[in-house]
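Quick start: load a record and inspect it. Here is Triosephosphate isomerase:
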Amino acid sequence: MRKIVIAGNWKMYKTQAEGTEFLQGFMPTLEETPPDREVILCPPFTTLGILSKNLHGSRVQLGAQNLHWADAGAFTGEIAPAMLTEIGVRYAIIGHSERRQYFGETDETVNKRLKAAQKYGITPILCVGESKQQRDAGETESLIISQLEKGLVDIDQNNLVIAYEPIWAIGTGDTCESKEANRVIGLIRSQLSNPDVPIQYGGSVKHDNIDEIMAQPEIDGALVGGASLEPASFARIVNYK
Ligand SMILES: O=C[C@H](O)COP(=O)(O)O
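Running the structure step on this input writes:
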């Protein structure tokens, strides 16, 4: 039985005060949310602590946007898994295209971060997806298969979420057509040894397209950027029909 997982990736938005204000608007809306939906918020590192306190005892899980593979060490600007688990972090986004594009993330470093997350009991959300150029060149399938093959070496597929995020659909309002997202997610599932790994779609998910996206049989949830920043908008997504 595949789990439904809906995560808000706040990227580099929301101070502690703004995160707290978001919760005031968002938390009451969860009364309508079916209990089988896992709801995750992934704020910036500095906002994790205050959210952890405010979410204690609630159904909302906390996710980080990255983590380092070492237990500790001289890695300026990085964060260790134990620093995250100490404040109740249960998930971590790994290999987001913005990390791959701007910060030199490779399939090899993605694999190390996935292993480190699992070592500490954190469920990694592995992001894969093609650029517009790769799509136009007909390379979507081969690129995604390669990202999965390299990223998932020695990874336990019983503690894993995957997000299919076509880069050209991120932050552009240009959502991947839901049937096409369903097709690619089916391809991703065909590459896995565990067919129950939840696979999300990400890329311009909004309040007005979530119902159609979630109606697709292969799609198990969403990784939401911009539309997760406003309580009513994220609430509508979490409470999709
Ligand atoms: O992690 C989230 C994705 O990058 C999608 O971002 P977006 O919903 O703003 O397009």
